[in-house]
């Protein structure tokens, strides 16, 4: 666990499985079709139970589509949370297809949705850095900057935590957080 103070708010990183850590809102790394998948998306639907997919189907229909860079909300089923925010990060296509802006938008939209719900705590995985192939160091800089900028503005969020699944990703986030602290 490591953290950075931003005014009276906290930007934190920790290692672990995002499905086991209590938060008002848990962010999922979803796909545009909102149909579930592997990685953290699979873990969230498994741990949360079938009500999350049922709600996605009911609220957004069989042809549901969430644009890259955006997000939608459901309840959290059996997860230790009130809401799951299903955010869609970009597939890495070499970096010149607007990936940094789209990744920042996925985090920004998630934070804004959480704040509109009155959430005080939120957890994130490292969106796009698994199946979607976004290089970890670049994704980390974008992710931390986007969430830091949100916490520096008007929001109900008091604490935002990145939950890193692997030791490698934790170390990359730790270095990037230290760089933000020095900046
Ligand atoms: N807790 C926290 N982080 C996790 C967990 C977990 N339980 N499991 C995996 N990660 P990925 P993407 C990390 O592939 O790249 C799905 O099929 C993982 O180590 O889950 O945004 C969706 O349906 C990695 O660092 O998401 C989409 O189709 C990070 O979460 C697609 O994958 C993100 O990896 C989205 O790809």
If you had to describe this structure to a student in words, what would you say it looks like?
The chain starts with a strand and ends with a helix. Helix 3 runs parallel beside helix 4 (136-151) and helix 4 (136-151) packs across helix 5 (167-182). The chain has one domain (2-182): Leucine Aminopeptidase, subunit E, domain 1, CATH 3.40.220. The mean pLDDT is 98. A hairpin with a 7-residue loop joins strand 4 and strand 5 (83-88). It is of the alpha/beta class and 183 residues long. 39% of the residues lie in helices and 21% in strands. 45% of the residues are buried. It has helices at residues 39-48, 51-60, 99-117, 136-151, 167-182, and strands spanning 2-6, 9-15, 25-30, 71-75, 83-88, 121-124, 159-164. The longest helix is centred in the middle third of the chain and has 19 residues, at 99-117. The protein has a seven-stranded mixed sheet with strand order 1-2-7-6-3-5-4, with helices on both faces. It is built from five helices and seven strands; from the N terminus they run E-E-E-H-H-E-E-H-E-H-E-H. The chain is globular, with a radius of gyration of 15 Å. The chain binds ligand AR6. Ligand AR6 binds at residues 17-19, 29-31, 37-41, 43, 89, 125-132, 163, 165-166, 169.
């Amino acid at each position: 666990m490591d953290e950075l103070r931003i005014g009276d708010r906290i930007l934190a990183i920790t290692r672990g499985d995002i499905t086991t850590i209590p938060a008002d809102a848990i962010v999922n790394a979803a796909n545009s079709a909102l149909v579930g998948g592997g990685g953290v998306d699979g873990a969230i639907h498994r741990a949360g139970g079938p009500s999350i997919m049922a709600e996605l189907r009911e609220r957004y229909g069989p042809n549901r589509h969430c644009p890259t860079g955006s997000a939608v909300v459901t309840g959290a089923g059996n997860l230790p949370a009130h809401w799951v925010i299903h955010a869609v990060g970009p597939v890495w296509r070499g970096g010149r297809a607007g990936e940094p802006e789209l990744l920042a938008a996925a985090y920004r939209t998630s934070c804004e949705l959480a704040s509109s719900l009155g959430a005080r705590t939120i957890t994130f995985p490292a969106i796009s850095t698994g199946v979607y192939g976004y290089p970890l160091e670049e994704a980390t800089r974008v992710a931390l900057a986007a969430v830091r900028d949100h916490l520096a503005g008007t929001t109900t969020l008091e604490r935002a935590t990145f939950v890193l699944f692997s030791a490698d990703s934790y170390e990359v986030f730790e270095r990037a957080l230290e760089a933000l602290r020095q900046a």
